[in-house]
Specification:
The protein is mainly alpha-helical. The chain has ten helices and no strands.
Length: about 260
């Protein structure tokens, strides 16, 4: 089976899987479950009706999505930048690792949403608090993977480079950093999912726009269709982000792929 046939097969399987889920959902709400949640048709209808034309609150769905994405990207890239630098530094220098690893090991198991009360006290209820929470979600995963990647570089590569006269800076930028990139990208992908979940939790605390606000506003108004529409939007945008990231990773890390 060639690549084109494989892609077509995967697409058909994905379509069949989604259609099967929608059919089962439609059948399921015909019974007692229908009293608790709407079927797929009202949810899909509301999603497309509010995507560009109709509004939820005072904004269209696309504007709510953009607000959430802007918050995610701001915290994500900031956390990724700090995480890569700290992770590589801890993996490269024993002194840096000795100083920062105990603090990082304490912070890492704490979920970002646990910082919500502290972020409100320290920063307030504005955008900075949301970005701070997203920063933490990105920072921890990226730091851990960059640290692991730098620590697990094949020592034979380092010894060979030293024998050829490479200095510390050359070792770092020509051996350690390239060898750590696959691990860093794995951390970036997990961090993106974590950031997406974190911004939704942050928007549920205090916001007037965003996908998290759509869900909490629907809960306050006892509007299950709006709640399910927000959940649908979260799933679709999360899936698109994951697909885009994998395409970017495949393009940037072609050198890491084996085979023809």
């Amino acid at each position: 089976m060639n690549k084109k046939q494989k892609n077509i097969t995967e697409l058909i399987c994905a379509v069949v899987s989604i259609l099967t889920f929608l059919i089962l959902w439609h059948i399921g709400v015909k019974g007692e479950l229908g009293r608790l949640m709407p079927g797929p048709l009202p949810v899909i209808r509301m999603f497309f009706a509010t995507l560009f034309g109709g509004t939820i609150g005072s904004r269209t769905m696309i504007i709510h999505i953009l607000y959430s994405l802007i918050r995610v990207m701001a915290g994500y890239f900031l956390g990724a930048a700090v995480g890569v630098v700290l992770g590589l530094s801890m993996g490269w220098s024993r002194l840096v690792e000795a100083v920062f690893s105990p603090l990082f090991r304490i912070i890492r198991p704490i979920p970002p949403i646990a910082w919500i009360p502290i972020s409100i006290i320290w920063i307030g209820l504005g955008e900075d608090a949301k970005i701070f929470l997203i920063f933490l979600a990105s920072f921890c995963y990226v730091t851990l993977n960059a640290w692991s990647g730098a620590k697990n570089v094949d020592p034979d590569y380092l010894r060979a480079a030293r024998m050829l006269g490479a200095g510390k800076r050359q070792l770092l930028f020509t051996i350690v950093l390239p060898a750590s990139i696959p691990s860093i990208f794995a951390g970036l992908q997990v961090a993106l999912s974590s950031c997406w979940a974190t911004v939704l939790a942050a928007e549920m605390v205090r916001s007037s726009e965003g996908l998290g606000w759509i869900i909490i506003a629907g809960m306050n108004n006892n509007d299950m269709v709006q709640i399910m529409t927000g959940i649908l939007a979260i799933g679709l945008v999360g899936m698109l982000l994951s697909m885009i990231f994998r395409k970017v990773e495949a393009r940037l890390c072609q050198w890491n792929k084996s085979g023809s």
